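thought: fold this chain, then report.
action: predict
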Amino acid sequence: MKKFFKLHGYKENMKVRIVIISLKGKSNIWWEDVKRVRGIRIEELSWHEFNKPFRNKYMSKRYYDVKAKEFYKLKMGYMIDD
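observation:
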């Protein structure tokens, strides 16, 4: 998303709107709950205000650990097949 935003030169608030309309399934339900509980108005929401709770929920250290393990297995699998 960062590359996409940089390519198009979107302003902070537009980034938030694009991401929010892209949310599907559980992430959309999560966002609707967060918005309701915190009384968030999208028109006033900055990228940082959205991104911080989103990263905490969906991009935790555990997420990165799982991805690192997947990468390691992929790399090792490639080395074994040679």
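thought: worth noting. The mean pLDDT is 83.
final: tokens above.
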